[in-house]
C-alpha cells in the first residue's frame, strides 16, 4: 500500500518561508492623517469578517494602529464600513 509522491498533498507548500521585515507604511510614506471617509484604504486593515487586523500582522506602529482603529470605528458608525460581514474582500 505504498502511495505515490503525487498523492501526498499538503495544506501549505513544504518550503521555508523567507520572512520579510515588517514596516509601518504610515511612517515610510509620511502619512500624518488617516481619513475615515476612504473605505478602500481602510479595507486593507480589515479581514474578511470585517475585524481590524492586529499590529503583528500589518506591521503598523502603535501610534498609527490606534489612529487606524479610530478611523475604522468612525467609518462603521457612519455606515461607510460594515460592522460584520461574511465576505468583505
Description:
The chain is mainly alpha-helical and 89 residues long. It has one domain (22-89): 30s Ribosomal Protein S18 (Irregular). The chain is built from 4 helices and no strands. The longest helix is centred in the C-terminal third of the chain and has 16 residues, at 62-77. The mean pLDDT is 86.
Instruction: Please estimate the helix content.
Output: 25-40%
Tell me which CATH architecture applies here: Irregular
What spatial form do the alpha-carbon principal axes imply?
Answer: flat
SS class:
mainly alpha
Total DSSP E strands: 0
What gap, in angstroms, lies between the N and C termini? 43 Å
Radius of gyration, whole Å? 18 Å
Element string (H = helix, E = strand): HHHH
Instruction: Identify the CATH homologous superfamily.
Output: Ribosomal protein S18
Number of domains: 1
- CATH class, anyone? Few Secondary Structures
The largest sheet, given as strand count, sense and whether it forms a barrel, is: none
Amino acid at each position: 500500500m505504498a502511495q505515490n509522491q503525487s498523492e501526498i498533498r499538503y495544506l501549505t507548500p513544504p518550503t521555508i518561508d523567507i520572512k520579510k521585515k515588517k514596516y509601518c507604511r504610515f511612517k515610510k510614506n509620511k502619512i500624518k492623517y488617516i481619513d475615515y471617509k476612504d473605505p478602500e484604504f481602510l479595507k486593507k486593515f480589515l479581514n474578511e469578517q470585517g475585524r481590524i487586523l492586529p499590529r503583528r500582522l500589518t506591521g503598523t506602529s502603535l501610534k498609527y494602529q490606534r489612529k487606524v482603529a479610530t478611523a475604522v470605528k468612525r467609518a462603521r458608525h457612519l455606515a461607510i464600513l460594515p460592522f460584520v460581514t461574511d465576505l468583505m474582500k
